[in-house]
Design a protein that fits this description.
Elements lengths: L1 E4 L13 H25 L3 H4 L3 E7 L4 E4 L5 H4 L2 H12 L8 E4 L11 E10 L2 E11 L28 E5 L2 E2 L1 H8 L5 H29 L1 H23 L5 E9 L10 E9 L4 E7 L11 H13 L9 H5 L1 E7 L19 H16 L13 E8 L7 E7 L29 H7 L2 E8 L15 E7 L2 E9 L21 E3 L7 E4 L1 E7 L4 E5 L14 H9 L5 H8 L3 E5 L4 E4 L1 H18 L4 H10 L4 H7 L13 H14 L7
Parallel strand pairs: 11-12
Antiparallel strand pairs: 1-12, 2-3, 2-6, 4-5, 4-7, 5-6, 7-8, 9-10, 10-11, 13-14, 13-17, 15-16, 16-21, 17-20, 18-19, 18-21, 22-23
Helix pairs in contact: 1-6, 1-7, 6-7, 8-10
Length: 662
């Protein structure tokens, strides 16, 4: 089945609402959604949701989104209307005051099974006028792996509990048996039950606010305002599009690999057309991969919406925005449209951010004044088992994600240590809270030197984090990420950043590089682990960055003295690093930059096998391999990935070398 998104036909384009009332109600809708968020933040049980992995929305009677929260997770926002419509389709006329529904089904427009939505109809004058929805990420939803991130799963049966639209409250009556059935399939049922009640009550907060507005302004006026709020956004977007260049642009980004196929990056092709009537996308992806990094249609459309919305930051996001966009994502069974029962739990680390970054690149050409290179990839590290600190050794899930770097921008460096583009409202989990709740000690957490992609405008820096497993039994580790091979890229001459991946017992005789995607690796008390998050890609030729700016990066420990010379051609002498005393060697810098200019295009033509041998012997380091020679290896063994290298070099030729001046 081909899936095509077309403009909404449910929005009434005519209204008699006066401007003042419209503006008051539009902002009141935003407040009603933010009140939901404040409620869930104060009453949730899980540390994951407390760290803001949740979103809220107000939908109209047809399920169209009227308003999102101001701090929501990007991957959620483009799917909430799909899930609301799924409830409407499932229950039809059998929806009553006091009902609350739950759903996490990724095949009905959801994200992944950890994201559980609670949806409450809002009745006024005997009819449904709206729906309130809250979606939160449950730390565990069952399945064979603690945290429910089973990399090896190829179907959802190996991931966890799929919740098709189901009633949890019926006409105000709590269906305790249904709720217990859901939470009983998780490793932390008390925590899940607490979140279930917190999320449901959050929707009641929104309901009370909307009914207050209906009582004050009238039900018909509130419904008109919901329609006009969507109309306003659609008109605004279409008006702005008319002032932009018209034409077609396209690009390709990649997943690291398909575990069921020979090595090689997995392409996702994105084409966008502006024709004065709207924004039109066509996406193509290969067959679904043999892992859980595929994307359902809801997540793919969410990536399209979120990537596009980034270039219209002041425009509210609702179904009026979606109405200005059409998209075709092709038949089911692909990496970007994985229908039932293909595994999709890792989608946000897989196709989602690849689509977003590809759209960033396209819109950087349409709106060069807002250009931005590739941002780092979302990653999750999970350690789960039994907490031996407690008498009954309860299950624990140490569930962690890191900040990282966004791409260099057209007039400034990228943001460092920032939330991933999948959800800019996401908070880094507090180490103190993690250590109190789980037997995992944080041993380091700092900015990663040399992690930002070099460029005229440097990519933002990533973060390095280390941990130590303490009093734990029967524990395993899983990691969901990407871009160990499809390295975060630069544009307009900028260079890539660094690869993702986890090291176990680094700098010991038992050191192992586990890579960027694995699950159920046994770990013991005393095992240590380390991982970096990538920085953003660079924008512009790094040889055009002023030596003074490079010196400031060295002083700030964003760039090392060695990489200042190798990546930027700036020779800096250390006088007293403790006092931040360095000196630029002007003559040596001029000579170094001339030397790099003469050779750098040829470096991308060097036999990759020769590069691999130099890396294995220690003659060159990892960043030389990636940034200078455009070669991709197994970063643990040094094994050459020939096809991946060919694809990586093609990207570097287009995005980097093609913009260098001789």
């Amino acid at each position: 089945m081909n899936v095509t998104l077309t403009p909404s036909t449910t929005v009434d384009r005519h209204t008699s609402l006066d401007p003042v009332t419209f503006e008051v109600l539009k902002n009141a809708f935003a407040t009603s959604v933010d009140l939901m968020s404040e409620q869930i933040l104060r009453t949730c049980y899980s540390f994951v949701i407390y760290s803001r992995d949740f979103s809220s929305a107000l939908c109209d009677a047809q399920g169209n989104t009227v308003m999102q929260g101001s701090g929501d997770i990007a991957v959620h926002v483009g799917t909430l209307h799909f899930q609301c419509k799924a409830v409407i389709e499932e229950f039809g006329d059998d929806i009553h005051p006091g009902d609350v529904f739950a759903v996490n089904d990724p095949y009905k427009g959801g994200t992944h099974i950890n994201d559980v939505s609670f949806i409450r109809p809002i009745f006024s004058e005997g009819r449904i006028i709206a729906y309130a929805q809250n979606k939160g990420h449950w730390a565990d939803i069952g399945g064979p792996v603690p945290g429910s991130f089973n990399v090896a799963a190829t179907e959802h049966f190996g991931e966890g509990l799929r919740i098709t639209p189901i009633r949890i409250w019926s006409k105000g009556v709590y269906l305790q048996d249904i709720a217990k059935l859901l939470v009983g399939n998780t490793r932390a049922p008390e925590q899940a039950m607490g979140d279930l009640h917190a999320q449901s009550e959050a929707t009641a907060v929104c309901e009370r606010e909307i009914l207050r507005l209906a009582e004050r302004y009238g039900t018909d006026t509130v419904e008109n305002a919901m329609q006009e709020t969507q109309n306003y956004v659609e008109r605004t977007v279409l008006r702005r599009l008319k002032g932009l260049p018209q034409g077609t642009w396209e690009t390709t980004d990649y997943l690291d690999l398909d575990p069921g196929a020979p090595e090689g990056l997995v392409p996702i092709n994105i084409k966008m057309t502006l024709d004065g009537e709207g924004i039109h996308y066509t996406l193509e992806g290969g067959p679904a991969i043999k892992a859980f990094l595929n994307s359902g249609y809801g997540t793919t459309f969410s990536a399209i919406y979120a990537g596009t919305k980034t270039f219209f930051p002041d425009v509210p996001l609702n179904s009026g925005f979606y109405a200005a966009v059409t998209a075709e994502i092709g038949p089911e069974g692909t990496v970007i449209n994985a229908g039932w029962p293909l595994a999709v739990t890792g989608t946000v680390s897989g196709p989602y951010e690849k689509i977003m970054n590809g759209i960033f690149e396209i819109w950087s050409k349409v709106m060069p004044e807002r250009a931005m290179a590739c941002a780092f990839n979302l990653e999750y590290l999970l350690v789960g088992g039994r907490d031996a600190r407690g008498a009954d050794a309860p299950y624990f899930m140490w569930y962690d994600w890191m900040a990282g770097g966004w791409g260099g921008r057209v007039s400034k460096d990228g943001s460092s240590a920032t939330a991933p583009v999948f959800g800019v409202g996401l908070a880094v989990q507090a180490c103190e809270g993690q250590e109190r709740l789980t037997p995992v000690l944080t041993t380091m957490h700092q900015i990663g030197t040399d992690s930002g992609g070099p460029g005229r405008y440097r990519g933002g820096c990533g973060v390095e984090k280390g941990g130590l497993l303490t009093d734990a039994d029967s524990s395993v580790m899983s990691y969901c990420c990407d871009r160990a091979r499809s390295i975060t890229w630069g544009i307009e001459g900028g260079l890539p950043s660094i690869p993702h991946g986890v090291w176990l017992n680094r700098d010991t005789e038992e050191e192992r590089f586990l890579g960027s995607i694995f699950s159920s690796v046994p770990v013991q008390p005393g095992d240590s682990f380390f991982r970096p998050s990538a920085g953003g890609g660079g924008l512009g030729d790094p040889l055009e960055r002023t030596p003074e700016e490079v010196l400031e990066d060295v002083i700030d420990d964003y760039v090392s003295v060695a990489r200042a010379a190798e990546d930027y051609g700036v020779v800096i002498h250390s006088i007293d690093p403790d006092l931040d005393e360095y000196k630029i060697d002007v003559q040596a810098t001029s000579a170094k930059r001339d030397w790099i200019r003469e050779r750098r295009a040829d470096w991308l033509l060097v036999d990759p096998r020769e590069v691999a041998e130099k890396y294995q012997s220690g003659e060159i380091d990892l960043l030389d391999v990636i940034r200078r020679y455009g070669v991709i290896l197994d970063w643990g063994t040094g094994e050459l990935f020939e096809e991946t290298t060919r694809q990586h070099r093609e990207q570097m030729m287009r995005r980097s070398a093609g913009h260098w001046k001789s």
